[in-house]
Amino acid sequence: MTQEGQQAVQRAWREGAIRAGAEYVRRRITIDPITRLEGHGKIDIFLDEQGQVERAYFQVPELRGFEKFAEGRPAEEMPQITSRICGVCPTAHHMASTKTLDALYQVTPPPAARKIRELVYSTFMTEDHALHFYFLGGPDFVVGPTAPAAERNVLGVIARVGLEAGQKVIAMRRRLRELIALVGGKAVHPVLGLPGGVAKRLSPEDQARFQEVARDAVEFARFTLGLFQDVILKNPEYVDLIRGDAFTHRTYYMGLVDERNRVNFYDGRVRVVSPEGKELTTFAAADYLDHVAEHVEPWSYVKFCYLKPVGWKGFVDGPESGIYCVAPLARLNVADGMATPLAQEAYEQFYATLGGKPVHHTLANHWARVIELLYAAERMQELANDPEIVDPEVRTLPTATPRAGVGVVEAPRGTLFHHYETDERGVIQRANLIVATQNNAARIAMSVEKAAKGVLSGRELSEGLLNMVEMAFRAYDPCHACATHSLPGSMPLLLRLRDRQGNVLALLRRDHDGSLHRE
């Protein structure tokens, strides 16, 4: 950092001024709120006397507590209750919950019901991945990491790729959501899933609509992949950013795979590979507690998951640390390939370009997500063309006495576990949800700190550089309403008293240990 830059930062510390979207207080930079994600969060960055980044914390200062909300409720209400956790990924919770009811009541859905579920889920995954690329994470690349903040959004993307392309994005998402509502009852909070099946069969007319939209969705996904290649992969600066050390971590990876170890969003076994890409284990959803444990820190409402056989070694990567990653990059790393032809071609190009498996570059999640967008659209098309999907038999009525059940799906953000325990009447006694963002939480925290050190240290601060720190978490597409399950003893709090002109008159700070400080 230049002498002038150091003086500017020191002056900002003294004055408590606002600069480039961050607040500088003494040797502390706070980015609050962080943007383009679901939920709330902030980043605290602490500098040493030379202006180098000493520590950075990714903090989630909210608590939802849906596991407690579930207690005392009939289990069959859970697909509707849990879909209210988040308006971005309600279908993921709805489907994981429905599969948990299958296990709870020990019932197997008819083939048509299973295919209808996966069809709706593939439609949802197509729509959600498009949402993240065009609206949330993708603008950082399509528009530019250091472009003005007002342009790093879908409007900036449309300005970059053209109005016709923007209309295509909006129209495709609308059509996909209409299909979810057609079968699921609602686009945001579906009412499709029942223990042992689904609430509505698919008519031949419905099938025809899915076939038409699925065909267009495949072309849309190919267009998006082409856009990624033209705008991002042909820009050496972007490729260097993706492959840079500031956005790289060597961790374990987890994801669902089918019987041939190919990516599967709806069903399969959970597979874990090491930082070297070797299989560590595969397990069924019901055995997740033998493999996944949760660590709690006092400064966040998010629990930090780790691999139980490896153990918690702190916020470090490498084979000795139990920290792992889920989400699109992880799913590609744990799989031996994709189950559809166009996605398989893209999968092979991905690893050929980035130097083979596994890929450890956090920002490569964006490329992996576009490949998955193509897979979801292709799988949607396969299911829409399956003649069995219009079979009228769509439910097997449960007869067993419920006790416990575990369900798993791949949410857009990664592996999602639901676990319910009930009494003999099916009333929830205990619920445990391990969501994708919890699985990713430790790696997200590490990514934010490493990006802050790699991007900010020794450089003059700017809003664009701070946005590059935020890019470290956006790659994971985190969902913090889903992930906030920990209730620590005390949460940090910063309270400022200002006059009408906005001048700070007093500041009260509570640290995570509960101690109060007046400044």
Largest sheet: 5 strands, antiparallel
Mean pLDDT: 90
Summarize the amount of helix as a percent range.
40-55%
Distance between the termini: 28 Å
Describe this structure in words.
With 519 residues, the chain is an alpha+beta fold. It has helices at residues 3-15, 66-70, 78-82, 90-104, 111-136, 139-142, 154-161, 163-184, 204-233, 236-243, 328-334, 341-354, 365-384, 436-456, 463-474, 480-483, and strands spanning 18-19, 22-25, 28-31, 42-47, 53-59, 193-194, 197-198, 252-257, 269-273, 279-283, 292-295, 304-307, 324-325, 404-411, 414-422, 428-434, 493-498, 504-510, 516-518. The strands form six sheets. Strands 1-2-3-4-5 form a five-stranded antiparallel beta sheet. It has a four-stranded mixed beta sheet with strand order 10-9-8-13. A three-stranded antiparallel beta sheet has the order 14-15-16. α11 (328-334) crosses α13 (365-384). The protein is globular.
List the keywords:
519 residues, alpha+beta, 5-stranded antiparallel sheet, 4-stranded mixed sheet, 19 strands, 41% helix
Task: Describe the structure concisely for a colleague.
The chain is built from 16 helices and 19 strands.
